[in-house]
Specification:
Blueprint (H helix, E strand, L loop, with lengths): L5 H10 L4 H8 L3 H11 L8 H9 L3 H9 L22 E3 H15 L4 H22 L5 E4 L13 H5 L4 E5 L4 H10 L5 E6 L6 H7 L6 E6 L5 H6 L1 H5 L8 E7 L16 E6 L20 E6 L4 H11 L5 E4 L8 H10 L5 E4 L6 H10 L5 E6 L6 H11 L5 E6 L9 H12 L7 E7 L10 H12 L3 E8 L7
Parallel strand pairs: 1-2, 2-3, 3-4, 4-5, 5-6, 6-7, 7-8, 8-9, 9-10, 10-11, 11-12, 12-13, 13-14
């Protein structure tokens, strides 16, 4: 019987790693498939349920099990024998806080125990799990931790080999200086680094950023409890240590005035995501002077700069932009800004835009100016376009659009009639060139959309079968893919 080579199966299963049910089905094909699918089923510790943690404990070496026994810790496991696979070796994504949480819950459910004893016993079990992972995982990909106490997992035997190829790190600034220093001695190839800046900013963080050779994406969030002094002294110097070839920068939820002048140094930047509170909107004034020759994506959530500043930024950087999303979270649009986007960003492929019912001509201008547009997210509700108006405009004015996202900003009951929906698809079929449509409905929490009418769903299923609709999805604001 023909057998796909392991490289092909790995490639296939990589695309299925979020689909746990399908991976479980693959286990039943044969032992070869079982071994490969197990690696993906056990790769992300964040997805482990209680049963998987029991199995992980069964994988502990004899000396670790003895330590648990000597401390009166007895956790029932699926088998008294060593498991069929050494599941610990499959771990690629380690979320340390998840381990603490699940082990504490496991111990709490299994026996009556005081809070102090529970914390002590949890720490003992967690330490042994980390010892095993550091010793047996040959190449961890992603590490996530937001510590409430000092951690020493980097000192366990095998930690250097386990962490040396780490490509993703997600943590906060409360990490001890020693731990950051240890990571800086091991991890040189972090590509994705996200950090929450809190009241304490470890001096070891600068060392860790400085030694990175291949950092591509840096994300930071400034939390409420930060003091003005720590912001003033520590963060600007850290941001200046970011490599000039950084490709993506995400500054999120700042309630402090943070200078953006350092962005001028990031000449290879391709994606810029910004989110600032209203009282810090003045930080955007510097944005108009920034020139980023390789910038392709700009997303400014919540509040955004005054038109003059933003238009000046688009004059400097709009020509190369492929995607733009501005002010979406606050549901505020500006017609003059939309017209400037049409004029200055002619190479856009993706846009999120708020068009009022009285400004439908602006949407026509955008489509005429941006001939390469393939995806559009249109805000719906209140003074913005209704679903009917959005669908009519798309089929009438657009040329190359094949993804339409109707983004319902407000709690409004929509009533798109079946005959109106049918008319849209009939007209879509007549378009030249005719491309299969991806239609996504992002609802305001539980607000009903076109799916409120059963006949509409029947029509959509009909056109899915005909191949007119490639993808249809109804989701909400929690779906990161569409925010």
């Amino acid at each position: 019987m023909f057998q796909l080579p392991v490289d092909c199966l790995n490639e296939i299963f990589e695309h299925l790693k979020e689909d746990q049910l399908t991976l479980y089905s693959c286990i039943l094909v044969n032992r070869f498939w079982c071994e490969i699918s197990m690696k993906f089923l056990w790769s992300d510790i964040n997805s482990y349920n209680t049963s998987k943690f029991r199995t992980l404990i069964a994988c502990l070496p004899i000396e670790s099990k003895k330590i648990l026994h000597d401390n009166g810790i007895i956790i029932s496991t699926p088998t008294s024998k060593f498991p069929t696979f050494n599941y610990a070796t499959f771990c690629k994504v380690l979320f340390i806080n998840r381990v603490y949480h699940k082990i504490k819950k496991l111990l709490k459910n299994q026996q009556i125990i005081s809070e102090q004893n529970l914390n002590d016993k949890t720490q003992i079990v967690v330490n042994e799990i980390f010892k095993m992972l550091m010793n047996q995982v040959t190449s961890l990909k992603s590490l996530i931790f937001f510590p409430k106490s000092n951690m020493t997992f980097t000192l366990y035997p095998g930690a250097q080999n386990c962490l040396k190829n780490l490509s993703e790190l997600h943590c906060n600034s409360n990490v001890s200086t020693e731990l950051f220093y240890q990571l800086s001695q091991i991890c040189y190839n972090i590509q994705i680094f996200s950090i929450e800046f809190r009241r304490t900013i470890s001096s070891g963080l600068a060392d860790l950023i400085s030694v990175q050779r291949n950092l591509k994406c840096f994300s930071m969030m400034l939390c409420y409890d930060m003091t003005g002094e720590s912001l003033k002294n520590a963060i600007p110097s850290l941001l200046l240590k970011l490599p000039n070839n950084l490709m993506k920068l995400d500054l999120y939820e700042s309630y402090h005035s943070l200078s953006l002048s350092f962005i001028n140094n990031l000449l290879d930047l391709q994606e810029l995501h910004l989110s600032f509170s209203f009282k810090c909107i003045s930080v955007f004034e510097e944005l108009q002077y920034v020139i980023l020759p390789k910038l392709q994506v700009i997303k400014i959530r919540k509040n955004y700069p005054e038109n003059n500043s933003l238009i000046k930024f688009l004059e400097n950087n709009g020509k190369n932009l492929k995607e733009i999303c501005i002010g979406e979270d606050i549901a505020y649009s500006n017609n003059s800004l939309n017209l400037s986007i049409a004029k200055l960003c002619s190479n856009l492929k993706k846009i999120s835009v708020g068009i009022k019912s009285s400004e439908i001509e602006t949407l026509k201008i955008i489509f005429n100016s941006c001939n390469n547009l393939e995806s559009i997210k249109i805000w719906c509700g209140r003074e913005y376009l209704s679903e009917k108006e959005a669908l009519e405009a798309i089929v009438k004015f657009s040329r190359n659009i094949y993804e339409l996202i109707l983004y319902h900003q407000f709690k409004v009951q929509f009533k798109l009639l079946p005959e109106e929906l049918e008319s849209f698809f009939i007209n879509w079929i007549d378009r030249k060139p005719q491309k299969p449509l991806s239609l996504v409905i992002v609802r305001y929490f539980n607000t009903k959309s076109l799916d409120a009418i059963d006949k509409n769903i029947e029509i959509i299923n009909k056109y899915i079968k005909l191949g007119v609709i490639k993808k249809f999805k109804i989701t909400d604001f929690d779906d990161d893919e569409y925010i």
